[in-house]
Design a protein that fits this description.
Layout lengths: L2 E5 L3 H13 L3 E5 L5 H7 L4 E5 L7 H11 L4 E6 L9 H7 L4 E4 L4 H12 L5
Length: 125
């Protein structure tokens, strides 16, 4: 199974995602702060990072850019519930800078688990 880091400032969403992933035997690490991501990634290997885009400390776009430069083998799924208008879709931006997949909030746990499976591929299902 996969090792997954989940970054979101919403504690309730973190818990829901954590419980869903643990039921599928994935190893899960949660963080509400995006400020310590560099240290977390240095200390532990992850197969996947699931990150919110809009956060108070450091934006998910910055996190995606950092991961793609420093840990290019880590898969990334970006998520957000906010749109900045038709001409500036945050999920499209995330995809264009290196996110492997995106998902719009709100989503069901089934949708998320399917997307994680597709993103990781058959070796981690």
């Amino acid at each position: 199974m996969a090792s997954i880091l989940v970054i979101d400032d919403n504690e309730i969403l973190l818990e829901v995602i954590s419980e869903s992933l643990k039921q599928t035997s994935h190893e899960v690490m949660l963080t509400r702060s995006s400020l310590n991501i560099e240290n977390i990634l240095k200390e532990q290997d992850f197969d996947l990072v699931l990150t919110d885009i809009i956060m108070p400390d450091k934006e998910g776009i910055e996190i995606i850019i950092h991961i793609k430069k420093s840990h290019p083998n880590i898969k990334i799924i970006a998520m957000t519930g906010k749109k900045m208008g038709d001409s500036l879709d945050l999920l499209d931006i995330a995809k264009s800078i290196g996110a492997n997949a995106t998902i719009a909030k709100p989503f069901s746990t089934h949708e998320l688990l399917d997307l994680i499976g597709e993103t990781l591929g058959p070796q981690n299902e």
